[in-house]
UniProtKB/TrEMBL annotation:
This is Cellobiose phosphorylase. SUPFAM superfamilies: Galactose mutarotase-like (SSF74650), Six-hairpin glycosidases (SSF48208). Residues 14-289 form the Glycosyl hydrolase 94 supersandwich domain. One of its GO terms (molecular function) is glycosyltransferase activity. It comes from Ignavibacterium album (strain DSM 19864 / JCM 16511 / NBRC 101810 / Mat9-16).
Amino acid sequence: MLKNKYGFFSKDGREFVITDPKTPRPWFNYMWNENYAGLISHTGGGFSYLETPRDNRLTRMRYNCLPWDRPGRYVIVKDSESGKYWSLSWAPTIDKKYDLYECHHGQGYTTIITEKNKIRGEITYFVPTDLNGEIWKVKLTNLSSRKRKLEVYSFTELLMGNALNDIINQPNDKHFTDIHFNKEHETLLCTRRYWVLNRKVTVAQPNIDWRYNLLFTTTLPVSGFDGSLDNFIGRWRSEANPISVETGKMSNTEITAGDPIAALQSKITLDKKSEIEFAVIMFVVSKDEKNPFKASQLKQLKEIKTIDKKFEAVKKYWDDYLNNVKVSTPDNKFNLMLNVWNQYQAAVTFDMARNSGYYHGGLLFGTGMRDQFQDILGMVIAHPERVRKRLLNALRFQFKDGSTLHNFFKITEWGEKTNHSDTPLWIPFGIVEYLNESADFSILDEVVKFYDEGEATVYEHLKLAVDFAISSCTERGLPKIMNGDWNDTLDHIGPKGKGETVWGAFFLGYILKKSFELLEFRNDSETLESWKAKYEQLRTVINDICWDGKWYLRAFRDDGSEVGSQKHKQGKIFINSQSWAVISELAPKDRADSCLQSGKKYLLTPYGMQIVWPAYREIEDNTGLISRCVPGKKENGAVFNHASSWFVLASILNGDIEFAYDVYSRMIPLNSSKRIDRYEVEPYVYAEYVTSPEHKTENQASHSWLTGTAVWMYRIALDYILGFKTSLKGLTIDPHIPSSWKSFKAERNFRGKRIILSVENPNGKNTGIQSIEINGKSVESNFINPDDYSEKELNVKTVLK
């Protein structure tokens, strides 16, 4: 069993079961569909939103609050005879002693099981696939030998609108809330008469209506309600001891102003050894629907059998999603990540970007273009149609000159143009990866509008992005860094427009080379010739001026001074220049060997590869924010997992497979989180970074869930370690495995086929194919064009040399 002191993975790996609620930090999960989403912690915390977490937040979450992780989605049970009460999710009544506590985080749902005062409670939180809302399904079991009279209090604190405005303008914002109780349907009808949709913080008054009704109801008969937070909680109290729960008296307050809450009271009787099932339902309906109760088919929705069907639909969705890839290797932790949690985290990043999480509060960043075009890597295997739609939408935020917004917000469709040098280049990256998986070349002829004016085909959008990057090079041919590149904290290198990014040069080269096959497919010989010439020019200039003797520099400032040189006291070597020198194939073999060896020597830690060494301990204002970050954390010397994954890829490509897999293994959360009280965050998903040995809190992790690490670790494992390498023409089987693996099996869906791969490694090799069979027939090549086969399943058997 894979476990730590706070919990364990279920036998099938589909759940992480937390057995001690006092985890070092709140450990979260997600529940969502394409429109509605919620974070759910192991104690019922988190927040919900419709479409966007900033502009259409539904429930509150307080940042940096004490106690942690408040407020949340709570069901409190009270024994009417003794007056004792407790929460079914442990919080907020955390001072109570429980006989049993378990939180089961699964895919798209979280179930919390408690036993207290001879009452067993099971509460399952999930978002149905077909409802703009969430359901808290509850089962209460009387474990005692006597009849029990219980009171049930279901409540959550509402926001309904702009979450940023709620923080900065709450005293005024609370004057526009309406909550009324509908007796016929025993439902709280909640809304707001005013919606702040400003594109930024401003005193301007948009004077528009929040266009939704939020309904909060239960399948139990309702004996009391409240819409007022103040009345329900009481003066100088908290969610842990609401006055209404303590006294058993609801104020039945309907409000037209004030801090909103949705709170319902029900009373039940449980015979000895009996149980009851019920549900709490919160969902959103457009105000265009004159009768929200009829529009939502509320009567049917409140039936337990309907709720059970909706939960089964959620589980089936995730069964189907995870079935797209199945692996069985000698490494159980690798299997667990690839089969379940890495795939699942990749799905989360596809829909949440870097926007809606415990560490990314959903207030500032919106959806990043850079993130959007990387995060498709995780979803494109399972749902290429969703990726297609996402690509077409994102291209609307490109300008006609090929530049792009850096990020954008749904609903308002506003964003920022920050002039990060790499942002436009992720457009061709994403489009080519989509084509490699889907072979849907029709997307290239789709016409998409520019953000400023005019329109063009997707293919033209792609070319404009690359040509803009080429045009943004200096006279000597390196890309200008402008306000930063992938490393946002290198933001003071080129404020005058002369600073250059060496990593950006490698990345531009990589994108050019990645596009060659597509240009050939389109018979675009003029562009192909031009881009090949630029690629070779990059090779020349990089190797003429960017080599520092043992590794590649990171950048040049406006004044021509170097960043990332061995002659410096701090920031001597940056990981990305070394990784992408190899990934782009612009480094000659001797320099590739040298720069990766230097990376090994200076950047390797027990948890992965450090992003820069040594960390900055003195401020360098002409370098940027990196030097103001805490040494050993974030971009200033942490094990930044996203960048570390690229070093793994570079090592594989350069032939150092044993080392690559060693680093990959160190990064797997179950390995990097062995000291869980120091590590702190969830041990079942990747974190953005792990503190390096350059800080006294070494091995402390942060910013879990929403990181590009998820898709890169997933696809490096699938494409390079297991060897399913996609291209426009098809699939190449080319494993790169540890020599200790004597065999492995892996399956994946590809263009309507099921590729079932079996690899034998009798001689303990890392790579190199000796023989290959497809459906029992020996073939000469390890390349597979799925169109050449009529069978739905292709059984591929391979023996390594």
